Amino acid sequence: MYFLKSIIEQNAYSINSVVKNKFFKKYINKLTSFHYNKSNLYKNYLNGIKYNIKDNNNLDKIPFLPVRLFKEFDFLSIKKKDIFKTLFSSGTTSNNLSKIYLDKTNAYNQIKVLQKIFNKIIGKKRLPMLIIDKKNNLLDRNHFSASTAAINGFSIFASEIAYLLDPNGNINYKLLNTFLKKNHKKQFLIFGFTSNVYLNFIKKINTIKINKKNFSNAFLIHGGGWKKIEEKKIGRYKFNSILGKKLGIKKIINYYGLVEQIGSIFFECKCGYFVASSFSDIIVRDENFNVCKEGQKGFVQILSLLPTSYPGHSILTEDIGEIIKDMNCNCYGSGTRFLIHSRLKDAELRGCSNT
Amino acid sequence: MNEIKKVNYLVGKKAKLNTFIVPFSAEIIEFLDDLSKSLNNFNKKNISDLKVFSFFCRKNNILRLKNKHHESNSVRFGLGLLFHITPSNIPTNFAYSLIFGLICGNSNIVKVPSKKFDEIDIICKSINYVLKKKKHKKVKNMISIVKYGNNNQLTKKFSSLCDGRLIWGGDNTITNIKKFDTKPKNIDIPFSDRYSISLINSEKFLRLSKYKSLNLIQNFYNDTYLVDQNACSSPHLILWKGKFNLKAKNKFWLYMNNIVKNKYNPPLISSIDNYSQMAKEMIKNQNVHSFKRMNKSLYIVTLKKIYPGFFLKKTKWGFFYECNIQNLKNLNYVTNRSLQTLTYFGFSKKYIRSLFQSNNFNGIDRAVPF
């Protein structure tokens, strides 16, 4: 879409909130009507809920698609032949994955926006990156799981890449020590999924086999949620404090994002909040989908100006969060601040096969 | 792969599970009667489902069942070893499954939900207590209650040993369990996903007093919401017959909404489940006329028509479909193997019976008045 070019040239965080709200409202409405005209499935949905397309509906009036529908339907606002890249959500059963279709422009914009955000947080210089994962050799360039997509996305900002784990999932100390010896004097990055960082790095690493001081310049970025390690009762505070004590890693940033919505990646600021960039926003809704009052927890709805190849500009997630208004927090500009509390679990139903 | 984990034997340690005896044997009846008494002692919290179960196990009740089902002219024996895969959501279900296995003269391996339930603890405690008695030595060899998480290796092992499997938990569980090989003569008894429907005579319904209407709707509520609309007996489709369907629908759902709003308290995810279900219908179902969202736990999708081969996927948390029906002969469009119960209002039993008989409604298990 023609307007996207000008949007992604915007600064990632520094637009003031009045200006942002104005252009965000304008373009998110444009996107709604754009997808209505391009995707029959989306059109059926909006007709079904009797949505009234306007060019100035308020943000909270923008219709949302429940995130799990991306597992059921192939939402497309482009011709099939223009699909350049397909993203898949992580998951174990192959028939139950979200499928997100990007054309060249969307794939490019996604990287461009990630880069802008990354520059703001880490700086413009490319840094060496240690990835807490195995190297994935069998890469189909057109099909990306959420994990490979994230690793790929982040790794383009790296000056060199090392994978911590060998093919058996054990820490490769030789490789690690070579990497640290070479890079420890200046800032370097460590990237991994939250559960991976905990299970394969924090828990596994034998501090005798490494020099702890070599981690003092490390900047650790992790995301993907706490769900897998929830039963271990690990939260942000404990996670960060173990990393500090065991390895001397002080700079730790968590991020939140869903593969279903390109352009929405929220990094945690120093005060501990996720902050929306200029390209995205969030709304929190209660169980009746009314907008939550300040301090009230609810379902997180994410909005992004980037998705044009599929109608994913407004998605209702199954994450429980809360919007925070903290006048004392000036990190990363004036974007919406929020916390993610948990991901909803599949409920235990009553009822059974009747006797 | 750490699939082989410990099995937790709640009752019976790898017992000699090859005993099989005649149905309704005296040993089993006595064991159940003792169990009934012991349950009452252990049920300190007075959990109502346990009281019901204890009442079921009484000698008199089992003898009543014996009189009803036992054939004195033929000699029968249990099949051998049964493997029960019981549902994770009704804590006492495993116990009934076990009792049916025992009454029929079988040995039993019963897999209970991995989640902790007081009901399961108390029942197993009671069984263990009763089995300590010497007189129940034989029964002791017939019961093994196991608990384990997702462990296909164990399920595979038990499947290879048994002569019959009782597979609860619906279509997904059945598909999954059927992957595991059994002995060639093994018999599977699967409890597949099923749902129920209602048929309402709109004129008769509109003529009801407010008190009687509320009563009717309360009954409907009990069949549905008390089990999150997830029992096989919970109505999913409501068929309206008569001249004033629209008016009757409005009244029915309005009253229902008042009850649901005040009484029903589902988990958070139900909001998303229901909304997503509605969105799916809007996106792909061409048979949708319109939908109403009365509140987060009361969605009504009005369908244009029912047609031969009509099929409904089971919903939950108060998500209903409704449709007008002109000719009751067309009920055969919706009666199939997935259908359990038809609850009806405003028709005589005689009429419903003759309707079923003359039209060969296939698949449906029963029709009962509201």
Task: Tell me what the structure shows.
Chain A has 355 residues and is an alpha/beta fold. Chain A has a single domain (4-343), classed as Rossmann fold. Chain A is built from nine helices and 15 strands. In chain A, strands 1, 4, 6, 7, 8, 9, 10, 11, 12, 13, 14 and 15 form a twelve-stranded mixed β-sheet that branches. Chain A has a three-stranded mixed β-sheet with strand order 3-2-5. Chain B folds into two domains: 8-190, Aldehyde Dehydrogenase, Chain A, domain 1; 195-369, Aldehyde Dehydrogenase, Chain A, domain 2, CATH 3.40.309. Chain B contains 13 helices and 13 strands. In chain B, the strands form two sheets. In chain B, strands 9-10-11-8-7-12-13 form a seven-stranded mixed β-sheet, with helices on both faces. A six-stranded mixed β-sheet of chain B has the order 1-4-3-2-5-6, with helices on both faces. In chain B, strand 9 (288-295) and strand 10 form a beta hairpin. The model of chain B has no long low-confidence stretch (mean pLDDT 91). Classes of the chains: A alpha/beta (355), B alpha/beta (370). The interface between A and B is large, with 31 and 46 residues.
